[in-house]
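Hey, sorry to bother you again with one of my protein questions. I've been puzzling over a protein and I'd love to understand its fold better. Take your time with it, there's no hurry, and the full record follows here:
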Amino acid sequence: MNHPCRLGFAGAMLFALAAFEQHGGVQAAGGPVEGNNDTYRVLAPFESGNLLLFPVVRGGKSAGGSPFITLDEGIKNGEVEVTEAGKVRGLVRPRGGPIYPNQGTRGDQVNTLVLVNNSKQPLLLLAGEIVTGGKQDRVIAKDRIVPAGGDPIDLSVFCIEPGRWTESSVTFGAAGKGPAHGFMVQPTVRQQAMVAKDQQRVWDSVRGSISQMSVAAAPPARPTQPNGIAAGEGIFSRPMNTTSYAKVMQDSSVSAKVDEAAAQGMQAREQVLTQLKQEHAVGVVVAVRGEIVWADLFADTELLSRYWTKLVRSYAAESLTAEVQHRTPTISDAQRFLDAPAGGTETSEGEVGVYRYRELKSGGTETFVLRSLLPTADYDVHTSKLKVRSEERPVKPVPLYR
């Protein structure tokens, strides 16, 4: 029998679903978060280049009927607006009073943006989502929920474009050229924003990722020309004079390489998501070059499907930059990663009646849980679980300027 990893995307999913039904949907011993009454089960993976994705199905009742609007949807329809902090003087205030003692003199800040949700739906923000424009491209620092039609909020962000502090636009837009090419930062950069919470580490990670993606996307070496210069020499097919993570991801050479790495995850997307919806699929465990590094779980399949393209392309970008090869993980390995206790040190923050965001540290993993406290949606909306890797990662230095 062929190994499910070699059957292709749709074939692997159908194989996994058949196996799940044959075993009667045996429940796992635990879940990604202690105290969660739901049970999760990892299905057979599908393979795309150096990427291995294990779908996760959920036992019990699914949340269903998500009331949330996403960042991309809100920006596209004009109901969500993101600006530099200095553009909304005197308006930014949390529940209960002013956020700054002297708002009149407040200016633009690297790690602060202002967001207004004018829609009639609560807005869901995920750590790792990118907004482009303003004086620098930024990445959302943490998961959160923004109430419908509320006051402007102070949005915590990190810069992912260290080489610019000049305004390219008054407001920010979503990253990516259309739904099929949306993206968020890859897990390595996401980890620095979520775990380290340090701007310099985010910058270092961005530089390292850009450097390695440039190597992966470089054209093959060509014969030397009569003038002694190799045809096509350089990191891109044309000069890439930028430190912007978003601009690099939108470069045609890099984008094509990411699409190639994500190909199996994007083929037959609707067919597979339809099949998985019947089994309450809510997320995925991610292995890059054989190392299990991440898991993203949602309240229901509908939310998973809305983030699918951005997530899969972010995982694919990671598969281009990681260098160390590990043995191929099994379903049991992925299940153990998901079931590993999420106890240990816990911190939390949030907004009364809106959301709670918990960070749980245990051994070599960290788990982040966003729970909605809204009356119409009182449940865990998104969970990220990641393997905390060494801060030091070998990076081949590549000049980014010509």
